[in-house]
Structure formats: structure tokens, C-alpha cells
Amino acid sequence: MCGIAGYVGYKVATPFVLDCLQKLEYRGYDSAGIAFTQNDSLCRLRVLGGVDNLKRAVSQDVIDSSVMIGHTRWATHGRVSVENAHPQMSNHHDVAVVHNGIIENFDNLKAELQSTGVTFESQTDTEIIPNMIHNNLTGYTDTQILDALQKTTRRLQGSFALCVLVSKVDKIFATARFSPLLFVKSDYGFMVASDLGALPNGEKYKLLDDYFAVISKEGISFFDKDMQPVTLQKLDITNTQQDEGHLGFDSYMAKEVSQGGDAIRNTCKNLIESNALDIACTELFTHTFRIVITACGTALHAGRILGYMLQKECGIECVIDYASEFRYFPPHIDEETVCIFISQSGETADTLSCVEFAKTKQARTLGITNVPTSRLAGMVDYCILSSAGAERAVASTKVLMAQLAIIYMLVQKICKILNKSCEFSFKDILDCANKLDRLKSVSKLDKITRILQHKQSLFVLGRGLDYLTALEGALKIKEVSYIHCEALPLGELKHGSLALFNNDSYCIVLMTQKHLMAKTINNIHEITTRGAHVILITNMDVSVDVDYVIKIDCQDTLSPIPAIKVLQILALKLAKIKKIDVDKPRNLAKSVTVE
Ligand code: G6P
Questions:
Q1: N or C: which end of the chain has fewer CB within 10 A?
Q2: How far is the CA of 345 from the centre of ligand 1 (A)?
Q3: Cis link prior to 330 (omega < 30° from 0)?
Q4: pLDDT digits over 409-431, tens only?
Q5: Nearest to 134 by CA among 149, 124, 156
């Protein structure tokens, strides 16, 4: 949520900062801006829209500065406007700040500043920060600027990653709390960014909470909470988050949907090569009575499938909830509970606050994430990494496939530990991934897309595991096609929603569980009797009177994998026909770092 970038070096900063911001755009893209030092003054350029607009604006000017900070915004406080775009500046235009996060006590601090005559041109929570730094400045040495920054951040509540420029000083000052900030020493200069994948090759470092950094032409210096110089450990990881571009597809999302099979195969391979899964399973699940699973969005749907499998295959009681709701209905958690957190980015604020809560209850914690350097990976007792590579589109697709691979392997291992039989084998998971590659274009979907594009509302329906698949399918369709799409358990229809059905209604029905076939067919009759249309996704050879049948080839328990891919392709096609930019759906951001 908001991406920040900065460069200091011997080259012109603009291409480095803009390239970095472009790679961070999935964190927000409603406005963008840069600030830089030029001729001893602080200059700023801000535009509405994405980084392409910023690039166009930059090309109108001669900017040869080699010290620059930049921002791509997802609005939290203040509507989308140039005034609310970052960088935000002090009244005196001597301090510029880019911020990712949220300042919870900004109202009080703003009132305090206003009472001393400071005026505000934006509605952001950020604008207080440059003004507070300005008020705390006693001079322009590194020590004095860091001191002003620390005095400021000590009064801030909430989360933040900040990069700061001070006029006449050719350096970037940075700090962070509960928000990621990464640094690289590269051949071209020194850089800072919100995510590892946005940075070029070189020695990389991650800032710890309430630590500080100063980036100058000579290098990067780090300071701890007491402002003592420290050496941070170089990140010892191969950069799995490198941006590989569209690879010939017309969007990141299209490419990532096509990579679902690879995501499963790579994840399985890496889990077998490392023994992370074995260790976590033996330590956590030998004597486990309760499991609590929390996550957000697509990751939560993976969590619901995990919960279903653990209850059904392993017989372990599971509680599954939205991370954002979890604290309002806290389940019983103690030292015998295993809490599982799933997050593609590993930075989702709601999920992380649940980890903190679980830790206060002495629960044992397991994280599943795609980003090894993420906060989640560092917070949990055990971490299992998916190996899907960088996912850039806002809508999560291939990482979900990798999460499903982990879930199926985890369930298999737990069954083994508990001496229970498991309905599927490792080979079945790989077979399923291979079949996924052959599902590239489901021909009937073009015709279906032409019909559905005009609908204002759709339903995705199923029973049992199919209902969990439906939840993810409906989310994908609504987030990229903007068509209202509701997932419901089929049996619930006649308890209310059937009232909406007429001969203009379209339902996507999932039927992949043989033991639920008869009941599902009865429900289909209830729908078609009301004149509504049915698109059936099934792995069975059945003759039912519906508008379209899409066949998938898989065993019942693994059906979420191909069924979700079909729904991902449908969501993509609907977005494309409606000329929506699937990589940047309106109002959404990939990494939601505020609660
Ligand atoms: C946002 C994204 C979703 C994602 C969710 C959870 O809402 O738009 O695609 O599923 O956050 O993100 P996480 O990184 O925790 O999996």
C-alpha cells in the first residue's frame, strides 16, 4: 500500500527512481510524485494516475539531480488529488517526505502544529511529518537531521516507512516501523525501496523497526534505536522476487495465471529439497488439538481450503476467520493451539496483527508466504515459503496455486504423522499441476464472456469444497471485471437469494464432489426452474440440462486447483472485453499495509 523509492549516486537519479516506482505500482497507482535536490533547493513534481503519467511529466523538464525520492500512492487519508500526492513538504519547503503506512494519531499532532501557525494544504496524515521534522531541526549535519527525525517518529503512532530529503543536503534519511524498507548497494548507486523486487542487483539490506539509514554518494550508513552506528546483515537470499516483465502476455495477470502449474511444481520441488515442511509438521502437529487459520483476500480462501482438509482428512478442529475480524471474535487460543497465517506478501497489516495477538497467547505459529524477507516470515515460529516467483498483478493467482501446493503437501504430511490415510498422493498433486498447463484456453469461455459482460450481477455456487472454490472465483471476477459476483453455498439459495433469480440471472455452479452430486443436481433444477441460466464446471460425466458445461480433469479433493484456474481465466476474459486494466483494478492495492 503505497510504494516508496529513493536514489543517491553519481548518475542522474530519475530513471532509477521511476523504474523502481513502476515496479512498485501494484502497491498503489492513484497518483505519483518525486522530490529531488537541484541547485541547492528542494523541487517536487506530482501527478494524478500512475508512473507512466509521472514519466511523461518528467520528460517535460530537465532534471539532472542525483538525489531523489519518489512515491506511488494508494489513498488512505485524503481523496485522490495532486495536493494529497507525495512527496509532502513542510511549510518552509525545506523538508520533503514520502510515506508508506498510516499515522494513527495524526489528528492530534496536526492540531498541535496548527496551533503554532503551521498550515496544511493536503488532507493526508503524512503532511504533519515534514513539518514536525522542520520544527525539530537544529542544524544540517547528519546527527542533527537524524535527531530531528527520531524526535518526530517517537511521537508517531501507527506504521510507517519514511524517506526524507532536506534542502541543501544531498542525502536521503530513512526510517521505518512495521513497514518494509529495503536498501541496495549497486554498481549504479545506492537505493531504497518498499520491496526487494523493485531494487536492482547488489548487496541488499532490510531496515529493522525504528532503525535509521543515511544514504549518501559514499554509501549507506545504518543506525540503531539509540542512534549508534550498526552493521546490518546482508540479506542472504537469492532474489526470488525479480520482475520478469510480461513475457509476451498482454498483462502481468495473464502471465501469472498461465504460470500456475510452474508455481505448484517449483513449490513442491523446493519443499522436498528443503526440510522446512518436515520440521514444521513434526514440531507443530504431533500433539495438536486445535488449529486457528487467519488471512485476508485470496490467502484466506487458501486458508479455508486448508481448514476443510485438516478437518476432513486429519480430523483436527479448525477455526478459520478473516484477519480483519479475528480480534472481534477471538477464538480460544493457548499454548496448545497452532495458529496458521497465510499471506502472499507477508506484509498485510491485519494478518500481522493477528500474529502478534497469537503470540501474546503463547500459541505456536506457522506462516505461509511467498516473500522470504517479509515481516511475517520473521515473526512466526515456522515459515513455509511458496516458490511462485514475483507476483505483480493486484489479483493474486499463481501464488494461490503455490499456496494450494503447500496445503496439500502439509495435509499429506500431517496424515502421515497421525497415521491416517490421505485421499491424494504427491504424484496426484504434480499430475494436477501438469494438467493445469493444458487448460490454457477453455474455448467455451469466449462465448460465455460475451454473455456475462453485460450482467450487473453473477453468482458462483457450490457445496462443501466447491463452495470454497466459489468464494475465490467470485472474488477474482469482481475485483478485475467490476461485476458484482456473489459466492453462496448452494443449499443456502432457497433461504433468501433465490428471490433474486429470473430468466436474466446467470449462475456458475461447481460440481466436483461425487458424494454431493445428487444434491447439487437438485439445486441446479431449482435454479433453472426459475428461468435462470447455469454454467456448470465439473469433473464428472453427467447429463444435466444447463446452458454450458466446462469439463475439468481432476480427482475430487484436488478440484480447487483446476476449477479456480478456469475462474481466473474467465475473470481475465471479462476484464479484457470490458477494457479494464487487470493489473491495476480500481480502488485496490496488492500489499495492504494498513488495517
Ligand atoms: C489484497 C490483494 C489481494 C490479496 C490480499 C491479501 O487485498 O488485493 O490479492 O489476496 O490483499 O494479501 P496477502 O499479501 O496477505 O496475501
A1: C
A2: 7
A3: no
A4: 999 999 999 999 998 999 999 99
A5: 149
